[in-house]
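Researcher: Next entry in the queue.
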Amino acid sequence: MGQSAGRIQGILAFITTDKDRYLGGAPLSILARDKDEVVEFSEAIAEAFLADILELKSGDYLIIKK
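Model: Structure for this entry, 66 residues:
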């Protein structure tokens, strides 16, 4: 196993319901209407890119590629 095993290669998306935390830009930032939409977007993006979902304490989600 190389040194990069388990390390995050990149953040693919940031998904939130809080317009004050939505910044846009790279990585992809999505402003969802509610928690259900956050989960829906997260699962779809993670499946499409074979990525992992990380839920932050704030309730926001990061889609990361390892």
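Model: Strands lie at 10-16, 28-31, 52-55, 61-65.
Researcher: Noted, moving on.
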